[in-house]
Automatic annotation (TrEMBL):
InterPro entries: Acyl_CoA_acyltransferase (IPR016181), Acyltransferase_MbtK/IucB-like (IPR019432)
SUPFAM superfamilies in the record: Acyl-CoA N-acyltransferases (Nat)
Organism name: Streptomyces olindensis
Cross-referenced Gene3D superfamilies: 3.40.630.30
SMART domains hit by this protein: AlcB (SM01006)
Name assigned to this protein: Lysine N-acyltransferase MbtK
Protein function: Acyltransferase required for the direct transfer of medium- to long-chain fatty acyl moieties from a carrier protein (MbtL) on to the epsilon-amino group of lysine residue in the mycobactin core.
Length: 176
């Protein structure tokens, strides 16, 4: 599967995002009760934030998933771990579907990681999924993430995990 990325447009993409983030499948996104205006507002804040960015992953030009990247020295993980130069934080969300495609989500996280590592300044990707989100833990491990420890964020108990460029390439079977 081939994906491309484009910056999210908080107003034009809000209806699509609203359907994705309020679906029961997106429970760990913690926006189940969000109204359309709440989604617009949340993504307008991200769009205005120099340390947080949202992008849509496209498949054949059609929105296929959401990816957020952030600077963990300034957002999400401030005071919860010691950031290193080249760290970037990441979230991703695949939308609900009536016709699941085997391997789709793994293809998405692989594309997200490739996209993040296209930036030579990125040395390590940091994630902090909910400790109960076992499905994403398995996906993270499949692309090279190594859990470090559980941390308490204001909104959840999270599993702090890291993936270096070398770990990502090794997980893909690419000689480093």
């Amino acid at each position: 599967m081939t994906f491309t990325f484009r910056p999210l447009d908080p107003l034009k993409d809000a209806e699509l995002l609203h359907a994705w983030v309020t679906h029961p499948k997106a429970a760990f996104w913690m926006m189940q009760d969000a109204k359309l205006e709440d989604v617009e507002r949340a993504y307008m804040e991200i769009a205005a934030d120099e340390h947080h960015h949202a992008e849509l992953g496209l498949q054949d030009g059609v929105p296929a998933f959401l990816m957020e990247k952030y600077d963990p020295a300034h957002r999400e993980l401030v005071g919860l771990y010691e950031p290193q130069p080249g760290d970037i934080g990441m979230h991703f969300l695949t939308p609900p579907t009536d016709t699941p495609v085997r391997g789709f989500t793994r293809s998405v996280i692989t594309a997200v990681m490739e996209h993040l590592f296209e930036d030579p300044a990125v040395r390590r990707v940091v994630v902090e999924p909910d400790v109960d989100n076992k499905a994403v833990h398995a996906l993270n491990e499949a692309v090279g993430f190594v859990p470090e420890r559980e941390i308490q964020k204001p909104e959840k108990r999270a599993l702090l995990s890291f993936c270096t460029r070398a770990q990502f390439l090794a997980a893909r079977g690419v000689a480093v």
